[in-house]
Amino acid sequence: MPAADLPLLVDAARMAGRVATSFVGPSARRWDKPGDAGPVTEADLAVNDMLMSTLRTARPDYGWLSEETEDSEARLGQDTVFIIDPIDGTRNFVEGGRTWAISIAVAHAGEVTAAAIFLPMHDKLYAAGLGAGATLNGTPIRASSAPMSSDSTVLAARPSFDEKNWIGPTPDMERHYRPSLAYRLALVGEGRFDGMLTLRPTWEWDIAAGALIVAQAGGKISDREGVPLQFNNQRPTLNGVVAAGDALHGPLVGRLVPPSA
After folding, report:
1. Which of 33, 50, 60, 253 is least enclosed by beta carbons within 10 angstroms?
2. How far is CA 160 from CA 181, 184, 199, in A?
3. Domain end call among 140, 170, 189
4. Residue 32: domain span
């Protein structure tokens, strides 16, 4: 299945990049989603429409879960599902930034089997297939093997390092940030950063593609309590995400205060 789906995702990601970059972020029409769910632009919707047409034409028996499509319980009855974020990091796109990403994944029986993350403004295409490793522009990538230390580099929003989230003192690590969750995960898979974490409930479309890239690059990924990730849930959210190299993942999870504490 990954061998058949991955070329489709890679081609679709590059096509989506051409659609997205045909819009100029700051001048693209935008509006805010209900419930303080963040901005959406005409570019998000154009990419979503293109991906839906391309991917569902190629795989009409696959379900569909996308940030920019009204959810339907029909996907719950389908073994294999596309999980899409047309533009991850929309605020960055609106501001004219360069670190937004297109995230495309296929999940079968709750497990991601093929994934592509494309940053058009950097021409960086991360890809992974289950059992086939992970690549950046066709070159194999590998997650960090560094243990937890003061030199550890972790991608996280500032609130994640609030002392209330940690058992004992907040870990002495270098905190960095990128606006796209998908890109943060890809950077961990690439080994440019040792780990990433987000402790709030997180949408599946932000995580699905990056989860496979991290795992196939030799890293580990789980929810904030160390539970393996499962996709295509009835409510498509995850209990936070922790991703890191093998030596760092366990110590990071072990230091986090359980959300029910």
Report:
1. 60
2. 14, 14, 6
3. 140
4. 2-140
Residues 178 and 222 in one domain: yes
Distances (CA, A) of 169 to 138, 141, 261: 41, 33, 16
- The domain boundary, picked from 86, 116, 140, lies at 140
- DSSP class of residue 53? H
In a domain, 229, yes or no: yes
Closest to 134 measured CA to CA, from 187, 86, 55, 177: 187
Tell me the pLDDT tens digit for each residue of 150-172.
Answer: 999 999 999 999 999 999 999 99
Helix, strand and coil in the chain, % to nearest 5 = 35, 25, 40
Q: pLDDT per residue over 106-153, tens digit each?
A: 999 999 999 999 999 999 999 999 999 999 999 999 999 999 999 999
Residue (of 72, 66, 18) closest to 40 by Cα position: 66
Residues 117 and 184 in one domain: no
Q: Give residue-wise pLDDT tens across range 200-232.
A: 999 999 999 999 999 999 999 999 999 999 999
Round to whole Å and give the CA distance between 101 and 117.
6
Strands 195-198 and 241-244: what pairing?
antiparallel
* Residue 39: band (very low, low, confident or very high) from pLDDT cuts 50, 70, 90: confident
Residues 187 and 208 in one domain: yes
Total structural domains within the chain: 2
Question: 173 and 132 in one domain?
Answer: no
- Would you say residue 261 lies in a domain? no
Q: State the DSSP string of 113-171.
A: EEEEEEETTTTEEEEEETTS-EEETTEE-----PPSSTT-EEE--GGGG-GGGBSSSPP
Whether residue 145 is contained in a domain is answered as: no
